[in-house]
Amino acid sequence: MPMAKAIEVLHFVEFLETKPDAIADNADENEALEFMQSLFIGKRSDTEINNDFQALRNDNLWERL
C-alpha cells in the first residue's frame, strides 16, 4: 500500500478512536462499526477499500460522528 494511503487509513483509525464508545450503541450511527467489521483482512484490494472509504465520505458520515 502506498505511504499516502496507509497514512490516510491511520488517520481514519485515530479519528474513530477519539469518538466515545457510545457510538457503537447507536443504531443510526453504527455504519462505521459495521464497515470495519465487514473488512476481510488481507483479501481486499486498495481500490475496494478506498471506494468504501469514499462512499462513507460521500454520505457525510464524518460530519454525523
Question: What keywords describe this structure?
Answer:
65 residues; mainly alpha; 4 helices
Describe this structure in words.
It is built from 4 helices and no strands. With 65 residues, the protein is mainly α. It has a domain at 3-13 and 30-63. The protein is globular, with a radius of gyration of 12 Å. The termini are far apart.
Structural class determined from secondary elements? mainly alpha
Q: Helical proportion?
A: 55-70%
Number of strands: 0
Taking all residues together, what is the mean pLDDT? 74
Rg calculated over all Cα atoms: 12 Å
**How many alpha or pi helices?**
4
Summarize the structure.
The chain is an all-alpha fold and 65 residues long.
Write the layout of secondary structure elements.
Layout: H1 3-17, H2 31-38, H3 46-58, H4 61-64
Organism: Crenothrix polyspora
Protein name: DUF2281 domain-containing protein
